[in-house]
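Lecture notes, unit on protein representations.

Consider one protein chain, 314 amino acids long.
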Amino acid sequence: MSDQVFVTAFAPASIGNVGVGFDMLGLAIAGTGDRVSARRAEPGEVRILEVRDAEGATHPFLSSRADENTASIAAASLWTAAGEQGGLELIVQKGIPLQSGMGSSAASAVAAVVAVNALLDEPLAPEALLIHALAGEKFASGGLHADNVAPSLFGGMILCPNVLLPSIVKIGVPEGVSSVLLHPDLQVNTAESRKGLARGYAMDQWLTQQGYFGAFIAACEQNNIELLGRCLRDELIEPQRAASVPCFTEVKQAALKADALGCSLSGSGPSIFSLCRDANAANVAMAMEQACRKLGIECQSWISPLNAPGASVE
């Protein structure tokens, strides 16, 4: 075992799709995330020493095999590209529930590359880390989707369609708006959820959703909160996934009744997010939690600014 000092990085949770932008739009969340500690080691391989849960105990479900964990896969991608000859040892601490729709696998991958990057003699710019974090996320989700990885790495709201990768666009966010993220004590497997989605849509459906998406981006950039509320709608993906989250309809209705601007699934669910004016955030969070618990499902929630920070070395 190496006697080198560990470097620890934190990467936040994220909201994938943000309702209107399937696979293209993501939002960072303050208050919860994953940590990865990394250090140089011999021999020349990447190893995971431990995978811990939020309380620091050995994680009961996640693999510590280097070829089966998004953190180690992402770390190995960067380490190899940098031409390093020695090995790496990692400790992964999960703060995000698994299969939660909160970017759990993405946060581990991002925290790993940020920690490993700090070990390099010539660290790379954050923009150069994205492709390596995506290598880890691809293992978990079965495809190249940056809508969780990019906001976890860079913070804020990120436009990241595949046609632009590895480039991304950071979207300006309106003042006075917060996100509320509710996690019910349920699980949805992202890869399996994707398999159930329709492969084709009618032209009028596609045009409607593209209209909402374009107007939502304009509303963010123009600080137009009224327009943002009108356009935070998902006519394509949400109807197909809502049934897999038994509390979704009630939680969404409660959020809108509490004056949320809009409400939808976070990624494939089961987490549910709302955007709301800052002054309404606490009431929206309470309403969402109460609706969820009324159905006998335990939950927790986070209130976050739309410009929440991305990953960093601690």
